[in-house]
UniProtKB/TrEMBL annotation:
It is found in: Membrane. It comes from the Eukaryota. One of its GO terms (biological process) is lipid biosynthetic process. This is C-4 sterol methyl oxidase. GO terms for molecular function: iron ion binding; oxidoreductase activity. Pfam families: FA_hydroxylase. It comes from Pichia californica. Residues 144-280 form the Fatty acid hydroxylase domain. Keywords: Membrane, Transmembrane, Transmembrane helix. The gene is ERG25_1. Signal peptide: none annotated.
Length: 310
């Protein structure tokens, strides 16, 4: 078969092993190792729909469980107890195993199906999966935009599923653990998985629909970073080197831990902005500030009423 990579056309015999495909592709000038591996993978698979589906399924499994393992070890290491946000609440092995089974069920029975529609959708709206990849600057600005858009999506829909029946039917499952741990990040009802998952997967698709400028590799990096953010936010640990100490708008674990602890407030995923400006911060300090503001407002209104009556 003949494959075209940028301005290079290259002949690759079919039914080759991955290694021999790579040996041919590695001679294409101007590609870095990641781009060569990416191109070799798509040529070797010889079925783009299956290649993308498998890639995203494996990426999700490896990145999710790979990121949870260090948190499991930290939970079992007494040294780290001083950094635990709720030091008296550790998940038991039984709880972690129940959670893992439920998350795996969701991955196989809820997410594995729509994943096969991903490649045709990407092709239709012009998501590129060719090599070379876009520049680091392009990936950086697009992923930054996705973080802010996903955060807004997450804030409003997460806040929405805290209301009445929505909470009881959909979101209650995720709140089973008042002291969260990494594996609990995706422990949720299938409707919640699809609804909040749209913020991660759907937003790049909508972005590409309007801009016609997005690469599949950028989506892979974005999904990986978003998974890390969600798992770390559920880790239950706050370190002196946690990102929000340096990037003050970053939410981090203490922000989401408060949400699980108090059940209300702190609805955003990655940043503290929505909760700060819309006065939905969780926790005792935020509650006291809110009560103080409400009290001042009520006193002012009462004063205005008294002077109007005079
Ligand atoms: Zn919630
Ligand atoms: Zn949560």
């Amino acid at each position: 078969m003949s494959q075209v990579f940028g301005s290079n056309s290259i002949d690759i015999p079919s039914k080759e092993s991955f290694w021999s495909v790579y040996q041919t592709i590695k001679n294409i000038p101007g590609l870095n190792i990641m781009e060569k591996l990416w191109a070799s993978y798509y040529v070797y698979m010889d079925n783009d729909l299956f290649a993308t589906g498998l890639l995203f399924f494996l990426l999700h499994e490896i990145m999710y469980f790979g990121r949870c393992i260090p948190w499991y070890i930290i939970d079992r290491t007494p040294y780290f107890k001083k950094y635990k946000i709720q030091p008296n609440h550790y998940p038991s092995d039984k709880e972690q195993w129940e959670c893992t089974k439920s998350v795996l069920k969701s991955h196989f029975f809820v997410e594995a199906f729509p994943i096969w529609f991903f490649h045709p959708i990407c092709e239709k709206i012009g998501v590129s999966y060719d090599v070379p990849f876009p520049s680091l600057l392009t990936m950086f600005y697009q992923i930054t935009i996705f973080f802010f858009l996903e955060d807004a999506w997450h804030y409003w829909f997460h806040r929405g599923i805290h209301y009445g029946s929505f909470y009881r039917i959909i979101h209650k499952q995720h709140h089973r653990y008042a002291a969260p741990f990494g594996l609990a990040a995706e422990y949720a009802h299938p409707i919640e998985v699809m609804l909040l998952g749209f913020g991660t997967v759907g937003i790049p698709i909508v972005w590409c629909y309007f801009t016609r400028n997005l690469h599949l590799f950028t989506i892979c990096v974005w999904i990986t970073l978003r998974l890390f953010q969600a798992i770390d936010a559920h880790s239950g640990y706050e370190f002196p080197i946690s990102l929000h100490h340096f990037l003050f708008i970053w939410a981090g674990a203490d922000h989401h831990d408060e949400h699980h602890h108090h059940f209300i407030g702190n609805y955003a995923s990655s940043f503290r902005l929505w909760d700060y400006f819309l006065d939905t911060e969780a926790g005792d300090t935020a509650k006291q500030t809110r009560e103080k503001i409400n009290k001042t407002k009520a006193e002012k209104t009462a004063k205005v009423q008294v002077s109007a009556e005079k």
